Amino acid sequence: xxxxxxxxxxxxxxxxxxxxxxxxxxxxxxxxxxxxxxxxxxxxxxxxxxxxxxxxxxxxxxxxxxxxxxxxxxxxxxxxxxxxxxxxxxxxxxxxxxxxxxxxxxxxxxxxxxxxxxxxxxxxxxxxxxxxxxxxxxxxxxxxxxxxxxxxxxxxxxxxxxxxxxxxxxxxxxxxxxxxxxxxxxxxxxxxxxxxxxxxxxxxxxxxxxxxxxxxxxxxxxxxxxxxxxxxxxxxxxxxxxxxxxxxxxxxxxxxxxxxxxxxxxxxxxxxxxxxxxxxxxxxxxxxxxxxxxxxxxxxxxxxxxxxxxxxxxxxxxxxxxxxxxxxxxxxxxxxxxxxxxxxxxxxxxxxxxxxxxxxxxxxxxxxxxxxxxxxxxxxxxxxxxxxxxxxxxxxxxxxxxxxxxxxxxxxxxxxxxxxxxxxx
Length: 425
Description:
The chain has helices spanning 2-43, 385-391, and strands spanning 45-47, 49-56, 58-62, 68-72, 78-79, 85-88, 93-99, 108-112, 116-126, 135-150, 158-163, 168-171, 175-181, 185-192, 194-199, 202-207, 210-215, 227-229, 244-245, 249-250, 259-265, 268-275, 281-292, 298-310, 324-332, 337-345, 365-366, 370-371, 378-382, 397-409, 412-424. It has 425 residues and is mostly beta strands. The protein folds into two domains: 46-224, Sandwich (Jelly Rolls), CATH 2.60.120.1440; 244-424, Jelly Rolls. The strands form three sheets. It has a 17-stranded mixed beta sheet that branches. Strands 19, 20, 23, 25, 26, 27, 28 and 30 form an eight-stranded mixed beta sheet that branches. It starts with a helix and ends with a strand. The mean pLDDT is 89.
């Protein structure tokens, strides 16, 4: 009897143990399954599409294994993965664009200037739409200069973290940012938006229209002397507000004018000018500046655009029909009024007798027209407008009257992303 009772108690104890363990495992499975599933849905990521195009010259992309790929002007471009570097030499510049996978929506672009080493550390977006996390991009700028255009996204924003040898920048608001890195310091200019600048255990917030500096081994300094954009609504975020649209000039009476629109291109507002027809046609947009620039430290002109189509070779037989001209009307130090212009084209070959490389009928300060890749964003900069005029043997500007964008030719389509005239006190 004693043995039977002991066996019975052992069986009961075993049964209760199995029951409790089974219930515990069942409970853990019931709890952990949704928790783990939610964690997977929240935290699973996939890479963003990061694309590199050559803006000028030949651009190198170095991978982690030491291999190098070349990106040439006019090519479609190449993708870039985490751990790879964009390297530009003395005469090369590049454009890096960031988009969600399998989407045309532009999240951010990086204009990479010459003699620059830009490394992509991470570029990720949540894999599943139910995730509450945002998109992230981490990069490192070891030397050189980059201009960042961060575009707003309604549903899932992109946060950019940019490391430099002196510190780190965190960009979360849509805007335009310029970063220059040397052995001595990192210079950050916020044209629009906000930058959190971290170095030596301190954080400095730089707002729109301000500049900051991170000396090597020191905390950030600022705000410093600022750059003002003399052009209002240069990104066309408010359509054509502040811009004066001049009437179309059409050579042949029976031929049509073109269209002047602001379009959403992958979430980025752009000025779009389209014309299809026979014979010359021209339209222009002008913004009145009326600013004294005589005491400025620097005056920079920046322009980002793309030519989508062009039927004339170069800029026509007189060089006067570029699909895009940018003009600056100014008064020089002696009181004389003058105009500087730069023309751009995408097709044709320069021939002095048929298609000259400059306008032969324009009484303006001008250099040779610049050929740009067709259907590709191109950024252009005059780093010091006074030096540009001095290069042509002209006096420095005392007063900027206006800035004009001119679109001309027979058939053409041009999109302007942004134009800025940055003045530093």
